[in-house]
Amino acid sequence: MLASLRWGIKLSAPEFTIVDSLAEVDPAAWQALAGDNPTLSHTFLEALHATGCASAATGWSPRFLLMHRDDTLCGALPLYLKTHSRGEYVFDHSWADAFHRHGIPYYPKLLSAVPFTPVTGSRLLALTPADRALLARAALQVARQLETSSLHILFPEEADKQALQAEGYLLREGVQFHWENHGYADLDAFLATMKMEKRKKLRQDRRRVRDAGIDFTHLAGAAISDEALRFFYSCYVSTYEAHYSTPYLSLAFFQRLLADTPDSLMIVLAHRAGTPVAAALNLVGGNVMYGRYWGTTEFVSGLHFETCYVQSIEYCIRHRIDRFEGGAQGVHKMSRGLVPTPTWSAHWIADARFADAIGDFLEQETAAMNDYIDELSEHVPFKDTQK
């Protein structure tokens, strides 16, 4: 039985409450803590919930932890009770299986994450290190009171990672591939930093796309029409269908984002003779662009790389955006200039026996991950001066 939808817990001070809907939270107060990461905005999270994408029916039951002093919101932590591990991008299926084999339930578990979004950002939404520490401790108390098997905080930023480690959470390392803008004047200036054979291969791939008659348009904010958004969504759905899967997000979710926060969206539209053939949707905020979703109506050699990565990098250079995060996984992204970048998650396991075993596993996994990142870093596509 899940806990009630709203209740309070008291530490020494301030006051902590749990709410099951962001509709109960003042958007301005939330944004004062969440900052400019578009995936943490009140609008983004509420759109996930209001459209039913992240809801109890889909296995995501919101349990947002709020911290108040004198009726002023001074801290928050997005939390969900999860009945599965889908849509997280930090894989704990082997942990769940171990619990099951020993006759111990793993679900529901408690999770802090942005649903379906492997983007690093603040999870302990607070303005001071002391308040981040209070949130990290309070989350453990929530997990104990809800009698969950575990608590998982995914893709926390560095300040959160340090606070969580100080409170005894187990850390797990992962890797993504990001591009950094070093003040390039244009795309050619960026390509000039690459090794000759890598630059030549990238240009050959671009030429194949052009020879197929493909041109590109960048649509941002108010320039994104409902027609363009609907075409993107049909492509997004086709990507899942090609893998015999069902998309996590609905057209209503994207339409709500376009209506409420249009400046957070950018679409790369590929077309031939005016007819769209592929699209990629990126999120933008805080001078960072986040590559998220893509799809196509036909196969064209090199089209995926060009639409998702090269066009996005070119857009970042033109608009002086500092960083492009290419999303989860994908060593293939390195050939387009995205470099291996560590990501993190933090974990608390209620059962001490499993906590010890998982802690030992994470020590070995982290050492292996560090070796893997070091090896990848030896093969970045840049000249030695750019490593």
Automatic annotation (TrEMBL):
Signal peptide: none annotated. Pfam families: FemAB_like. It comes from the Bacteria. This is GNAT family N-acetyltransferase.
